[in-house]
Amino acid sequence: MKLKFLGTGTSQGVPVIGCTCEVCTSENPKDQRLRSSVMVTTEENKKILIDCGPDFRQQMLTNHEHTVDIALITHEHNDHVIGLDDMRPLIFKSGKDVPLYCYSRVAHEIKSRFPYAFADVRYPGAPAFELHEIENKPFQVLDTEIIPVEVIHYKITVFGYKFKNLAYITDAGFISETEKEKLKNLDVLILNCIRKFDPHPAHFILPDVIKLFEELKPKKLFLTHISHHLGLHDIEDKQLPAGIHLAYDGLELNF
């Protein structure tokens, strides 16, 4: 299986509009971060998208991706769902509704934001989705076992997702001891890390991530959902403890 980072930025993306800091004005492509999303390619070459934010169209074109077989949604914040309308070309081409897997709460929000996609009589050109409400239990789809990992993002629950010995978690500020059991001794753990300093009420910062790395002991840890406050990629990546890496848009992992 493969995982490609379509985007590794926060809700504002990097560069941030109007910001002239060294990260936002960097010419290094690794410092330019679209909103966080990944594409998982299964052993049967099926495509599993995790989150569909405002940069979805650009991400698909840049990475020469042409299909989405299913989408897993972590939570309902706009930087993770507002690109769903841009799935229309894929829906028109396949002639099929795109299956979305998410919490019941998130499903309700998606229906609220895209009511035209669920109307009894849809207007021509509307997207079409097949909602699957999931719980914190493993499920099988596309010949792949998917294990949800429940984390806390400020005051809401968010799903991360585990495939084989890789787990992807974004928008987390707390992981319970029970859920940590799913994350121990992985080959690859992907965690959000919004900045180096100053505690954040909804996201991990770098000291939190380093502590989790020491506790959970993955072979490799990649940071995502990165803001311009974390610093320049080429400088910060070299200063991280061995085994921890900054992800960047377009990075592909085999697992």
UniProtKB/TrEMBL annotation:
It comes from the Bacteria. Residues 34-225 form the Metallo-beta-lactamase domain. InterPro entries: Metallo-B-lactamas, RibonucZ/Hydroxyglut_hydro. This is MBL fold metallo-hydrolase. The keyword Hydrolase applies. The keyword Hydrolase applies. GO terms for molecular function: hydrolase activity. It holds the Pfam family Lactamase_B_2. It comes from Chryseobacterium panacisoli. Keywords: Hydrolase.
